[in-house]
Amino acid sequence: MTQISERDPNPADTNGHEQTEFLSFRIGESEYSVEIMSVREIRGWTKTTSLPHAPRFVRGVINLRGTVLPVVDLAMRLGLDETEPEDRNVIIVVDVGSRVMGLRVDAVSDILSFTRDQLQPPPDVATSSNAPFVKALTILDDRMVRLLDLEVVLPTGEEIAA
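Given the sequence above, the corresponding structure tokens read:
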């Protein structure tokens, strides 16, 4: 288990632009990121206990130090190919508003820093009838990194209990 340390999420760069830190991770061949301030911790994969009638993208729940934590399979939530969890997968525990959930991803990559002007909105063709899960894109060393909108990605309690 890796605890994310408390540190200044917006250090100023040499031009005085505020930088924001993001945790990047992989799902298949794609790289995604979330704002570091939403991340509570990173854990190794833990087998989940399934919930009846939960959406397919909810893998189940785990016991996180006495708290029942729902685990969302991020690949399935984003409409990507379904894969079976492996021991090398990780769970990123995120906290957004009053929602604390685990996100199953293939692997954590790095902590990245970007200024807001380095982020570009996704093209209109990237939005679907479901929800605009990607709120920004950036190019880093010839690779495209997608910034997820956790407010939209994380299901509500009603969705999980449906």
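Residues 21-161 form a domain with the OB fold (Dihydrolipoamide Acetyltransferase, E2P) fold (CATH 2.40.50.180). Try to locate this feature in the token string yourself.
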